[in-house]
Design a protein that fits this description.
Layout: H1 7-15, H2 21-31, H3 38-52, H4 56-92
Length: about 110
C-alpha cells in the first residue's frame, strides 16, 4: 500500500472503522455534511479519498490493523497510567511499621 495517512486521518479510520471498506466509507461520508470546521472536513474528505483508493481486501485489513493499533495504544496508556498512579501512591503512603503479634507470657 503506497497511500500515506496522517495521524488525523488514521484517527478518522479508527473512529469510523467498520467491518468493510464500504461501511467505513459510508460512516465517514455521512458526517461530511454536518462538519462545520473547514480543517476537520478536509481531513475527513482526504481520509475518504485515500481509503477509496485502496482495493477492498487490502483496505479491510488496513482498517482492522489501524483499529487494533489504536486499541493497543489506548490499553498501554491505561496500563502505564495505572502503574504510575500506584507508584505515586506507594511514595506518598508512609510505610507503617509492622506490629508484632501480641504474645502471651507464661
Amino acid at each position: 500500500m503506497n497511500v500515506k495517512f496522517s495521524k488525523d486521518e488514521l484517527a478518522m479510520v479508527y473512529q469510523y472503522a467498520a467491518a468493510t471498506k464500504q461501511e467505513t466509507l459510508a460512516g465517514l461520508r455521512e458526517i461530511v455534511p454536518v462538519i462545520r470546521d473547514r480543517q476537520a472536513r478536509e481531513i475527513v474528505e482526504s481520509t475518504i479519498r485515500k481509503l477509496d483508493a485502496i482495493p477492498e481486501p487490502e483496505c479491510r485489513r488496513f482498517i482492522a490493523d489501524t483499529r487494533q493499533r489504536f486499541i493497543q495504544k489506548r490499553d498501554n496508556s491505561i496500563r502505564r497510567r495505572l502503574a504510575e498512579a500506584k507508584a505515586q501512591t506507594r511514595e506518598k503512603t508512609p510505610h507503617s511499621k509492622r506490629k508484632e503479634p501480641d504474645r502471651e507470657r507464661s
